[in-house]
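task queued by scheduler; priority normal; single chain, no ligands, no partner chains; default sampling; output format set to structure tokens
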Amino acid sequence: MGDKGPSRAALWFMLPMMLAGAIRVAMHIVERFDRSTAAGVSALIQLTAIIGGICVFFFLLGYILEQIVRVQAKRASGTKNLMPMNLTVLSYQQAFELKGEVVFLPKKHQGVLLVIRADCLELFTGFAPYPDPLMRIRFSEIQEMSQKTVQLYGGKEPGVSFECGGGSFELGFVRTVVFRPIGISKASAQRHFDEIRTAWESYEAAVAAD
């Protein structure tokens, strides 16, 4: 989880091979149709079944891994109220600057589950059991938060930026935390942002009232 995927150079290298493979498949199907219509239709059905099987396999794999990550986060956090988020291309360096140590690794962490506490935000992720959040952002550290479009490894999505004393920290709103992030609607992103901001403002009001 968290692998940003093959580089652009690698994709350009693989493109000729993928095109060659597609051409060979197309020629094979044309050859089968030349023999007979029934043979051609059979080849198309076989190709569709193979592609469909691959899609189903990756869908099931993604679903199973997603559930494992959520189960581990539920155990570590003690709550089911988990908000799927995605680290941005800047989050890794930002977390290091805020905490003074490496918190997230691009090849290991990307999707995270956020838990809103009364006095802080906690980030959980991982397949193996763990006892504590990877990162905790206390509301007392946050000076301001704002909505913005953030750059994820899978594209641009609505997100939130926290301005803290030690710098800023960004997160993107997504639907899943495993593999490539799946975006959510602007309305859903707005609701998530309002939930986070309301918790922060409630903490600020409680502190001011003391």
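post-processing summary
- The radius of gyration is 22 Å.
- Residues 65 and 91 are 23 Å apart (CA to CA).
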